[in-house]
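Narrative of activities, Objective 1.

The group set out to show that a structural description can be obtained from nothing but a protein's sequence at a throughput compatible with the screening campaign. Below is one input-output pair from the validation batch, recorded exactly as produced.
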Amino acid sequence: DYEALDPTCSCEACSNYSRAYLHHLIRSGELLGLTLLSLHNITNLIRFTDSIAQAITDGCFSEDFAPWQSDSNAHHTW
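Output recorded for this entry:
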């Protein structure tokens, strides 16, 4: 597969390397593969937390990220 890992992501791994090459790096035990996937994961974590922050700012966090909060009959232990 010569597509990007995630076409919507702008990290180093997705911008410059194919899924096939990343697969090769991981299967070969190359540290570059682990580094690129770590950069991708960090980028996604930042994107996710930014979207949470935006949802809080927009006042729609409970609709977008925490649907259990609107269920007043549920009793959760977390």
